[in-house]
Amino acid sequence: MNLLRKTINLHTELLEIRNKQLAENQILERVSEILNENAVRRAEILKAIESGDGVSENHLEFDLLETGRIFHLDQIRKICIDYRLRFLESKYFKGGIPEEAITQISMLENDHATNLGGFRIVAPTKTFQLKNFNDPLLFAPIGNGYYYLVHKWGNDLDSWRKIWVWPFRNLITFTLLTIAISFLVTWVTPETNLSKSVPMAGTIIFLFAFKSVFAVTMYSFFMLGKKFNCSIWNSEYFND
Asked: What is the pLDDT of residues 132-176, one digit of tens each?
């Protein structure tokens, strides 16, 4: 019977309750500190993205990098020219940075024990002027002309975009388009008795059409302040 009658020391019970509460409070305080530190760092990351910090290279642990996220400047340049995109410092981006992008940066910083900077973004020109976005890509430089893809968000580009902007890649593609249009104009031009009697009438019509189409389209292109993709992919001026 004595075994069933266990005595309770109230002083000991009070000490256990107090120690348990202290431990819980310490845990809550530590969690609060971590959350506050995280909030401060997230604000610093956002400021670095929106203001720019002039960092030219980030030192990351190579073994922890995903090879599918490493791209050379030449590869970025090509996709910008193909799709008429810009590759600029993140401070020019007006579309807003999503929370998941900041989370990705924070996770990378924790994994690599460093602070990231020098962020750049690939996106259409209007994204750097207006608060809308299509498929922005956030990069961080890792040296020797290489960039690490930190995060991608937004909507995918129109699958036809590469075709629509192809004529504006450079002067050669622009000229090829005008030649194609000139051939079409020559083909749809009806024959007359005069054209039948004039040697090489088709060639003359083609050359006239080419000269006219090229002059009008080129004049309109530059009058609108536009430039070819190869000239604007990393330009900070938005009247291109």
From this structure: 455 688 888 988 888 888 888 876 677 778 888 888 888 898 889
Does residue 221 lie in a domain region?
A: yes
E strands in 42-182: 70-72, 85-89, 120-124, 137-143, 146-152
User: Closest Cα partner for 49 from 150, 154, 156?
Assistant: 150
- Secondary-structure percent of the chain, ordered helix, strand, coil, rounded to 5: 60, 10, 30
DSSP 160: T
* Domain end marker among 103, 125, 157: 157
Q: Are residues 64 and 138 in the same domain?
A: yes
**Interatomic CA distance for residues 139 and 49, integer angstroms:** 11
Give the DSSP letter of residue 121: E
Tens-digit pLDDT profile for residues 42-54: 888 888 888 877 7
Q: Is residue 38 one of the residues assigned to a domain?
A: yes
| Identity of residue 178 | T
Sign of CA pseudo-dihedral 175, 179, 184, 186? positive
Cα 211 to Cα 178: distance, rounded to the nearest angstrom:
9
Instruction: Kindly state whether residues 115 and 225 are assigned to the same domain.
Output: no
| pTM, full prediction | 0.67
Residues 103 and 222 in one domain: no
CB 131 within 8 A of CB 121: no
Please compute, for residue 67, the number of CA atoms within 13 A of its CA located in the half-sphere on the CB side. Answer: 1
Give me the domain span that covers residue 204: 161-232
Quick check: 85 and 107 in contact, CB under 8 A? no
